[in-house]
Specification:
This protein is of the alpha/beta class. It has one domain. Helix content is 39%, strand content 21%.
Length: 332
């Protein structure tokens, strides 16, 4: 038996992180249930990252801890179904709260104000000194990006969670290749193959047809597009689909139903931003490093959106145009 398979089965608990923020916690919840059924994990807990897409949180940057209401605070933020966020005169329910409602219990989450250090403290508490296993699950696969890729939109959140995951000896999961519309599916597959050649491969877990039921009662209540891709595939949809207001296109096919498990220490070797920010203590510090590296991030994109279009639920940024402007300014 593989050492990693034994670790997953013997752990008191496995924690699955929605690596990219926002809707990735939906995939973390579903993947937890699949691990319990197919791999024999005793108990699995999803974890959310409190950085929602603009369609949910039309203000730049991750959710500040001071703006969170009806939650329990410790090294992690413990979200329940009544948790909500206040931004100015606007309030919204984060995706993690919907998962808490589905499970009928609190779900841990992280804010990113203290960057890798803050996320690490939460992760370290949850893994219990090595008794539990943590999996950083990225929908799409841009967690494998080096930073130079033309279609890379949001590397900062992935890099922060990856660096914290590596510090606690966790694994990386890459689900629904290309489903976030950033790195194309074939490019993500090449990067997975590169990790295999480096000895970074652990295993693969795929959906069965009845796993479509795991999404019911949840997927239609949330605004995730990337985490919706496996659900659409399970429902029989195959082909191209526009997401993010038409600014990106994804392919939904057999690879959408597969999750690759990789060693975090090897993923760190290909993710330059994660390497450079691994000891950062604030989001500002991590963001400054990304700028020095010339890597545009989701924070750059959202700040530019706020400057050009303003903030609040009435704003409707042209994301394709903004991405071009951010990329141009980073290369200047």
């Amino acid at each position: 038996m593989s050492n990693y398979l034994a670790r997953l089965r013997e752990a008191e608990e496995v924690v699955v992180v929605g690596a990219g923020g926002g809707g990735d916690v939906i995939s973390a919840f579903v993947f937890c249930k699949v691990l319990e059924e197919l791999v024999g994990v005793r108990e699995c807990r999803p974890l959310g990252v409190l950085w929602e897409r603009w369609v949910v949180d039309p203000y730049p940057g991750p959710v500040p801890v001071a703006n969170i209401r009806n939650a329990r605070f410790g090294k992690c933020v413990w979200v329940n179904e009544d948790t909500y966020v206040v931004r100015g005169r606007y309030s919204f329910k984060p995706h993690t709260a919907y998962v808490a409602g589905k499970l009928k219990k609190e779900v841990p989450a992280v804010t990113l104000e203290r960057s890798v250090s803050g996320v690490y403290e939460c992760f370290n508490e949850l893994v219990g000194g090595g008794e539990n296993v943590l999996i950083d699950l990225d929908v799409g696969g841009d967690i494998l990006a080096e930073g130079w890729e033309d279609n890379l939109w949001s590397p900062l959140t992935d890099s922060i969670t990856l660096a914290a995951t590596a510090r606690v000896g966790g694994l990386v999961g890459v689900a629904a290749l290309g489903a976030d519309g950033e790195l194309p599916q074939d490019q993500v597959l090449r990067k997975v193959s590169e990790l295999i050649s480096m000895g970074g491969y652990v295993g693969v877990v795929g959906f069965w047809e009845h796993h479509v039921d795991l999404y019911e009662g949840l997927i239609d209540r949330v605004k995730t597009e990337a985490s919706r891709a496996p659900y659409l595939a399970l429902k029989g949809y195959v082909g191209s689909k526009a997401i993010r207001g038409g600014s990106r296109t994804i392919e939904i096919n057999a690879l959408t139903l597969v999750t690759f498990l990789l060693k975090s220490e090897d993923v760190m070797k290909v993710n330059k931003l994660a390497q450079m920010i691994c000891r950062t203590n604030s989001l500002a510090e991590a963001w400054s490093i990304s700028k020095k590296l010339g890597i545009p991030t989701e924070l750059d994109l959202e700040i530019m959106a706020s400057k050009i279009y303003g903030v609040g639920p009435e704003t409707s940024p042209e994301w394709g145009l903004l991405r071009s402007l951010v990329k141009k300014s980073s290369n200047a």
